[in-house]
Amino acid sequence: MELGNTYATAGVAAAMEESEQFRRELAAALARYCRGDWGQLCREDWELNDASLKDGSRILAAYNTSRGRIWIITEAEGADGRRSATTFLFPEEY
Asked: Rounded distance, CA 94 to CA 78, Å?
């Protein structure tokens, strides 16, 4: 899966600076994400993400960490399946 540029919101970046454990959790979450393991989502959202791999639309996954739930979102750039950016964020930063 193409991720595009990767970003972290201010809250996630601050938590990364404070905690090695959190950095390891983010790395593990990203590895799961790249394998198509969408984390703590309902079945319908898993199916939407699986379809997104084929149609190039947006992907959102959720993972529990020591700092609370994080989301990873990959934005679609166009109908050709290209991905413009992947962002790590806390849900409250959306």
From this structure: 22
Q: In this predicted structure, what is the pLDDT of residue 83?
A: 85
Backbone angles phi, psi at 35, to 5 degrees: -90, -5
Strand, coil or helix: what is 7? strand
Would you state the pLDDT for residue 79? 66
Please say if the pLDDT value at position 13 is more than 90: yes
Interatomic CA distance for residues 73 and 6, integer angstroms? 10
Chain-centroid distance of CA 22 in Å reads 15
Question: If you average pLDDT over residues 3-32, what whole number do you get?
Answer: 97
Q: Position of tokens 């149609």?
A: 55
Residue 14 identity: A
Q: How far is CA 4 from CA 22, 26, 87, in A?
A: 22, 17, 10
